[in-house]
Fold this sequence. Notes:
Distance between the termini: 45 Å
Strand content: 5-15%
Largest sheet: 6 strands, mixed
Low-confidence stretches: none
Strand order of the largest sheet: 3-2-4-1-5-6
Radius of gyration: 17 Å
Structural class: alpha/beta
Number of helices: 9
Amino acid sequence: MKQLILVRHGESEWNKLNLFTGWTNVDLSENGINEAKEAGRALLEAGYRPEICFTSYLKRAIKTLNNILDVMDLDWLPVSKTWRLNEKSYGQLQGSNKVEMAKKYGDDMVQKWRRSFDMQPPAFAMDDPKSPRQDPRYAEMTDEQIPLTESLKDCINRLMPYYKDVILKAFENHDQVMVVAHGNSLRGIVKELRGMTNEEIIKFNIPTAIPYVFEFDDKMNLLDHKFIGDPDVVAAKMQSVANQGKAK
């Protein structure tokens, strides 16, 4: 059996403040660190043992992965990092409070920026100090690759080549693969694996730091998928994500 373990990063400092984060390199909150460690314990207790890991260039994902591996005593595992697993770019919204934006522009518009499949938030200018073009970690990227804003569709499109060409190919030599990334980039993988429609995926919320495991046969046919954790906790965290960005 093959298993793909997906984990959204733990709560970040900006999650705690209900700010649009996107490609901003925000650290984990103290609660987020504890969430990551609990994810490691949950995987350990359930008998999982990943053999290779993938994560984004953003520290909230990297540190979540590091804490998971530390709890599991798997710090030595090979880890590949890529900007293609980064969160969706929210452009000029990054750093703005979601509730304040909802009061200013209305719940419907903010929900469209957050959750519609193909609507982009207002874009950065390439020379904006907050643009990824000004960040040295993205020096390898061409101007055409730099996301000045993204819809969920855009995020999925830049993710999928890496997912298909690198992550899936890791199963040629490994039985358990772990990806620690972000709500929207992970939704792209979930959409692909579950064959979800555009309408279904925009309604699907991934909770912070709850391992989501996909099981396959040796020919990579999907057999099952499940969250590793208390069902009530999973449901509460999913609802918390859904409620972000509402004026009331």
